[in-house]
């Protein structure tokens, strides 16, 4: 999707806020209460198109044109539905009581939440500096946070143990077969 297209309609401020969410337009990242959400490319693009036309109906045809080049051959209706549903899931949205995205039957969608623009992230959601992060795995553990490295190491040891058990079982089975044929 052409990023110039997105930027034409959106406010030039770096950050867009609504509800507990803020978007860093420069980095194309979405945060909920300071925690980063991992939105797939098309899901992020749908959000940006809806934000561009806040309060207006964005037709399914507009989403199709914004998300896929003219020469792309996909089931647009199913893909638009799937992409909007993934966005709703990421936002914790319900179709019964929408807070952000309203479905306009047989037409499209409308972004209904109030949007604020800012040049800085919310003070409570400024990413932590290196000095404020725990330095060691033991510091993370003491803070009640599982260490990524510790978790990864345990996963590797578990996988290695399973593989070892399978190999030993296969060798034992082969030895039994050979012993039985003597």
Explain how this protein is built.
The protein has 182 residues and is of the alpha+beta class. The protein has 2 domains: 3-127, Winged helix-like DNA-binding domain superfamily/Winged helix DNA-binding domain (Arc Repressor Mutant, subunit A, Orthogonal Bundle), CATH 1.10.10.10; 138-180. 45% of the residues lie in helices and 15% in strands. The chain contains 6 helices and 8 strands; from the N terminus they run αββββαβααβββαα. It has helices at 3-9, 41-52, 60-67, 76-91, 137-142, 148-180; strands at 15-18, 21-24, 29-32, 35-37, 58-59, 101-104, 108-111, 116-118. The strands form 2 sheets. A 5-stranded antiparallel beta sheet has the order 4-3-2-1-8, with no helix packed on it. Strands 5-7-6 form a 3-stranded antiparallel beta sheet. A hairpin with a 2-residue loop joins strand 3 and strand 4 (35-37). The radius of gyration is 25 Å and the shape is elongated. Residues 1-9 and 131-140 have low confidence and may be disordered.
């Amino acid at each position: 999707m052409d990023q110039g297209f997105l930027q034409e309609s959106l406010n030039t401020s770096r950050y867009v806020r609504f509800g507990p969410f803020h978007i860093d337009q420069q980095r194309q990242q979405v945060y909920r209460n300071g925690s980063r959400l991992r939105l797939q490319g098309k899901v992020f693009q749908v959000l940006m198109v809806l934000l561009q036309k806040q309060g207006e109906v964005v037709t399914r045809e507009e989403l199709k044109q914004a998300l896929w080049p003219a020469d792309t051959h996909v089931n647009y209706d199913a893909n638009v539905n799937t992409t909007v549903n993934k966005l709703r899931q990421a936002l914790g949205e319900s179709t019964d009581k929408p807070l952000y995205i309203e479905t306009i039957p047989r037409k499209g969608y409308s972004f209904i939440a109030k949007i604020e623009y800012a040049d800085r992230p919310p003070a409570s959601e400024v990413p932590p500096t290196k000095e404020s992060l725990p330095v060691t795995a033991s510091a993370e553990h003491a803070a009640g946070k599982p260490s990524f490295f510790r978790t990864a190491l345990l996963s590797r040891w578990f996988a290695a143990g399973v593989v070892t058990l399978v190999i030993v079982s296969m060798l034992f089975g082969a030895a039994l077969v050979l012993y039985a044929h003597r």
